[in-house]
Amino acid sequence: MGRPIRTRRQATLASLAAELGVSRTTVSNAYNRPDQLSPELRRRVLETARRLGYPGPDPVARSLRTRKAGAVGLLLTENLSYAFRDPAAVGVLEGLALACEDAGVGLHLVPASPGHEDVAAVHRAGVDGFVVYSVPDDDPHLAAVLQRPVPTVIIDQPRIDGVDRVGPDDAAAVANIANHLVELGHRQIGVLCMRLARERNDGFVTLERQSNAHFHVQRLRLEALAAAFSLAGVDWANVPVVERFDHTVDEGASAARQLLDANPQVTALICTSDILALGALAEAERRGLHVPGDLTVTGFDGIAEAERIGLTTVHQPVLEKGKAAGKLLLGAAERVTPKIITLPTELRVGRTSGPPRTAEERWFGP
User: Fold this and answer.
1) Peptide bond between residue 292 and the one before it cis (omega within 30 degrees of 0)
2) Which end of the chain is less enclosed by CB atoms within 10 A, N or C?
């Protein structure tokens, strides 16, 4: 039978203070308020702590004492991998992380997969406030966040009275795209949009679903397109709009395929994100369509890949969006009224938009 393994009892703040012959406050200050100690004393405390195996103050006990968690929560109602896969989400996450770094606080991701009603992750999150990134207005996780007695900042959507928000003027930004296409002469258009509600719909969208969309950014973009093209004499009721629940290039391609199969007369596809537009371009290539000679394609976001290929799109500063949200949240205690930050956008005309093909020109369909 082997000899029992002896384990050394872990040092505590009290035992470390006794070893050094200083007060427990002095030991605590070495970790939490280093400016209160001389560099030599702090070095001696930390070296002795390492020698004795003292791991530092208990963060749970400290948070109970100070009532501060030292972390910002990011509510993302997507699978966790989305934050590291979607280019626009990555930019927002990086900006928020930079704001947290500057403030010396952590970042706690609180993912909530689409369709899940369990809000326990929100209740369990040990955070000093929440940044909510682009969720529908009826999301139960959002309701749970707003029940917490901590400050909240919303990025993009939804708009809630009395809650801080950061985002672009979506209606104005999309109107610039519409006006650009109208000036080029496009009247036969189709739209590929991101999800409009929590329930899945991968197909054509009725006017009723558009007007009742719980993702208000998508609703505003569709309303702006409708208004601009109606002024140009286009009956919006006849404009095909295809929705995709999942936000991927493959889904953008399948949405373009569905729309063009049913509406071969379309000369321009307006996509409410660059990811969907990249998919539409892939479908156009599969069909042998020349862009923009046979088909114009536009996007929204201004991600790096869109810039690389020359996509006509609206550029929005996603990194600055995350950074502004973080700064707004971390400074919430200094304000008594909510603040709305509207970020600038820029229409960047690239190589994927041009005049519509004429009726005499051959359309290379499937």
Assistant:
1) yes
2) N
For residue 197, list its beta bridge partners. none
CA distances from 201 to 86, 192, 210 (A): 20, 13, 12
Cα–Cα dist 271/278, whole Å: 9
Q: What is the pLDDT of residues 137-153, one digit of tens each?
A: 999 999 999 998 899 99
Q: What does R_g of the chain's alpha carbons equal in angstroms? A: 27
46 vs 285 pLDDT, higher one: 285
Give the C-alpha distances (Å, rounded to integers) separating 169 from 156, 340, 361. 9, 11, 37
pTM above 0.70, yes or no: yes
Res. 9: pLDDT tops 90: no
Tokens describing residue 318: 């996603």
Mean predicted confidence (pLDDT) in 91-109: 93
d(C-alpha 269, C-alpha 190), whole Å? 5
Quote the pLDDT of residue 243.
Answer: 98
Q: Are 111 and 84 in contact (CB under 8 A)?
A: no
SS (H, E, C) the chain: CCCCCCCCCCCCHHHHHHHHCCCHHHHHHHHHCHHHCCHHHHHHHHHHHHHHCCCCCCHHHHHHHHCCCCEEEEEECCCCCHHHHCHHHHHHHHHHHHHHHHHCCEEEEEECCCCCCCCHHHHHCCCCCEEEECCCCCCHHHHHHHHCCCCEEEECCCCCCCCEEEEECHHHHHHHHHHHHHHHCCCCEEEEEECCCCCCCCEECCHHHHHCCCCHHHHHHHHHHHHHHHHCCCCHHHCCEEEECCCCHHHHHHHHHHHHHHCCCCCEEEECCHHHHHHHHHHHHHHCCCCCCCCEEEEEECCHHHHHHCCEEEECCHHHHHHHHHHHHHCHHHCCCCCEEEECCEEECCCCCCCCCCCCCCCCCC
CB atoms within 10 A of CB 290: 12
Question: Which residue type sits at 143?
Answer: A
Please, how many CA atoms are within 13 Å of residue 63, restricted to the half-sphere of its CB?
A: 12
